[in-house]
Amino acid sequence: MAGSSAEQGKGRRAQPQWSPPARSEPCQLRLYNSLTRRKDVFVPQDGKRVTWYCCGPTVYDASHMGHARSYISFDILRRVLRDYFKFDVFYCMNITDVDDKIIKRARQNHLFERYRQKPPQAAQLLEDVRTALKPFSVKLSETTDPDKKQMLERLERAVALAAAPLEEAVGRSLAGEELDGPAQVLLEEAKDLLSDWLDSTHGSEVTDNSIFSKLPKFWEEEFHRDMEALNVLPPDVLTRVSEYVPEIVNFVQKIVDNGYGYVSNGSVYFDTVKFASSEGHCYGKLVPEAVGDQKALQEGEGDLSISAERLSEKRSPSDFALWKASKPGEPSWLCPWGKGRPGWHIECSAMAGTLLGASMDIHGGGFDLRFPHHDNELAQSEAYFENDCWVRYFLHTGHLTIAGCKMSKSLKNFITIKDALKKHSARQLRLAFLMHAWKDTLDYSANTMESALQYERFLNEFFLNVKDLLRAPVDVAGQFEKWEDAETELNESFYDRKCAVHRALCDNVDTRTALEEMRALVSQCNLYVAAHKAARRRPNRGLLESVARYLTHMLKIFGAIEEESSLGFPVGGPGTSLNLESTVMPYLQVLSEFREGVRRIAREHKVPEVLQLSDALRDDILPELGVRLEDHEGLPTVVKLVDRDALLREREEKRRAEEEKRRKKEDAARKRQEQEAAKLAKMKISPSEMFLSETDKYSQFDENGLPTHDAEGKELSKGQAKKLKKLFEVQEKLHKEYLQSVQNGSSQ
Predict the structure, then answer these.
(1) How far is CA 340 from the centre of its chain?
(2) b/e burial code for range 218-239 (CB count within 10 A of at least 16 → b)
(3) Which of 136, 211, 256, 446 has its CA 20 to 30 A from that of 521?
């Protein structure tokens, strides 16, 4: 009988104790928070859910690159939080369609169009322009901002130049087309001048509310088109001030009820002194040093709201309007305080508060909105909710400059988004933004865009090379190749670069560093591929494909790849890239192989005409179709499908470079010939004659032709004579060489 169960138990081996691996602390996402002016660990209030409000545009004119700076940057941040860090982002943005700027611009447009539809006689037009110039001149003399002053002075000069021909035509009693032409020119040049004058004299007569909604509706549509063209994601919810007036009225009423607002002459103002002195509240959280800055506060109130009468309605100069009593010529809504319209700051508070509640995770806007707009938003919202945490993280995008200068119409460097997209693609603009910190100033310049273009070309070449490698036929098992040291090293570097990208994104979404790490990864891959080509070995397709797909994934997260592309940048127009590449590549591959066969036969049989046709196919015909062929000695031709315009530019640059190289070569050859001709001419001169022609320097010579006296008859010093003797001996040697060459028949 076998041993007892106890004995059997003694003989069993137990599993050894397992020790978990040591791990480092995971990297945490930190965001630069304007409320603390430091990078704070990002902790949403509700798990992975992130509530986010972004200040949208005031729609009264074309969107410009300043708007692009803010909305592309926030789009990148939003995508990274959503698609990389996997937060559930609820993104809300507003459209300001009720504002002093909109009201004034809408009235001016309406009144000028009415004026133009019934154009006055030429003499009357000149009189109106002279009348309009009087208040304009006062405005010009009172303007201190140098950019604005320059713009006004330019307008004044343009009007004067346009008025002169019409004044001459009227003085000569001309009629018909001779009068109409100059009148139309003046009307166009004086549009801003006349619009301002018409508004000051007839603005109060504009009472139709539809006039004030037509302008913002048009520009809002243009803004959305621009955002779509820039590949900026639409918000999850969009709010318009005109649609939230009842909520704004209720919001203002509660602030008054809570004791932080007061009614004055039909308007309602926020009591900054009462709020700041209340326990648990603080006014000026973002820019405390700016509290009391009257210039900034008045800019925040708007041009139509800073009259002496309006300012006298406030208890304190720092108080700001929650609700404005409407004057004649302004849109209005009925409310408990009479007819009026919302103040600028309250709009965002009411709309964001209605949708996101008493506290949101992120509020975003441009750097210039910090004070007074965002500080006033915080104050009135915390007065409404009676808390001190309406916003947890305030993010502000940096300024945008144009070639180092502030963007302004006066400097003639005002660039609309549509203008920018005529020069560069949305991807190139986004790459330029990605290459800069989102919170710092970005300089939009030729150098900035050239860096973005170079980065795009660098990555695109890598993607095209990997695609070419993956197109090479291989059996199922053959795609799994043995890894040598080179593959192991590249894979380790790949992992390290991914970790570096992750650390960069955790550090305030530092896309600049992330892109540099991605560039370094591509450089390492290129070295790996080059080494394998030099050794006539195929690189590991699986490893390079993994790298290319990772880079594609990151570029999609950043919004730099707009379409569904599994690897690399899309080719062709929207929605066509995948179909285009998969459809045409097999045919191009066949064409390339056929061409290689023809070239081989042409070389063997020495048929240069066929080789020339083959080169023309590569250099002239296929680039027009967006196809690049790359011939490599001893290796198959590489076929690449490239953006046609980019390829044609590339071809033109190559031709220019070749032409420049040829020109430099010709210049060098000509210079050598000139130098040789000059040397030969000098060699022909006998040393005894070399100084005789210099009578302006010397007056007497010895029997060998050496000077003995200067031009004034004074004997030369020993030092001078010694120096001339050396020159004589050098020439003597050269002349002997010349005579020898003549004797040998080598010179003419």
Answers:
(1) 40
(2) ebbebbbebbeebbbbebeebb
(3) 446
Three-state DSSP class for 333? strand
CA atoms within 13 A on the CB side of 79: 23
Q: CB neighbours (10 Å) of residue 387?
A: 13
Give dist(CA 297, CA 608) in Å, integer: 78
Largest CA distance in the chain: 143
Question: CA of 102: how far to CAs of 58, 108, 302, in Å?
Answer: 8, 10, 10
Comparing CA positions, the residue from 388, 384, 372 lying closest to residue 293 is 372
Closest Cα partner for 38 from 512, 514, 442, 508?
508
Three-class SS state of 546: helix
Give the 3-state secondary structure percentages of the chain, helix then strand then coil, rounded to 5: 60, 15, 30
Q: Which helix (H) or strand (E) holds 447?
A: helix 446-471
Least confident of 3-7, 130-134, 164-168, 334-338: 3-7
Q: Please state, in angstroms and rounded to a whole number, the distance separating the CA atoms of residues 524 and 518.
A: 10
pLDDT (tens digit per residue) in 608-643: 999 899 999 998 888 888 888 888 887 788 888 887
Residues in the chain: 748
Q: Which of 350, 364, 349 is nearest to 50 (CA)?
A: 364
Whole-number Å distance between alpha carbons of 540 and 532: 9
Q: CA 75, CA 82: separation in Å to the nearest integer?
A: 10
Which helix H or strand E contains 444, and what residues bound it?
A: strand 442-444
CA distance 294 to 745: 94
| Bridge partner list, 267 | 264
Separation of alpha carbons 376 and 574, rounded Å: 43
Residue with tokens 């000695």: 633
Q: How much is the pTM?
A: 0.82
Q: Nearest-CA neighbor of 395 among 348, 363, 436? A: 363
For the stretch 181-209, what's the b/e string if a residue is b when 16 or more beta carbons lie within 10 angstroms of its beta carbon? ebbeebbebbbbbbbbbbbeeebeebeee
Say if residues 349 and 377 touch (Cβ distance below 8 Å).
yes
135 cis-preceded (ω within 30 degrees of 0)? no
Q: CB of 514 within 8 A of CB of 550?
A: no
In whole angstroms, what is the distance from residue 274 CA to residue 93 CA? 30
Q: Which amino acid is at 306?
A: I
Query: Token pair for residue 23?
Result: 């791990």
Q: What are the angstrom distances between the C-alpha of 425 and each of 122, 269, 449?
A: 46, 46, 11
Task: For 575-599, give one letter per residue: b (16+ CB within 10 A) or e.
Answer: eebeebbeebbeebbebbeebeebb
Q: Please write the tens of the pLDDT for every residue from 134-190.
A: 999 999 999 988 888 988 999 999 999 999 999 999 988 888 888 899 999 999 999
Classify residue 655 as exposed, middle or buried by CB count within 10 Å of its CB (0-12, 13-18, 19+): exposed
Q: How far apart are CA 379 and CA 343, in angstroms?
A: 14
Assess whether pLDDT exceeds 60 at residue 589. Answer: yes
Cβ(212)–Cβ(331) under 8 Å?
A: yes
- Strands of the sheet containing 360-366, edge to edge, are 237-240, 88-95, 49-54, 360-366, 391-397
pLDDT averaged over every residue in the chain: 92
Contact 40, 33 (CB under 8 A): yes
C-alpha distances in angstroms, 359 versus 44, 45, 285, 352, 424?
Answer: 11, 9, 16, 9, 40
Q: What is the rounded average pLDDT of the residues 220-226?
A: 98
One DSSP character per residue, 174-218 reads: --THHHHHHHHHHHHHTHHHHHHHHHHHHGGG---HHHHHHHHHH
CB 561 within 8 A of CB 570: yes
CB atoms within 10 A of CB 438: 27
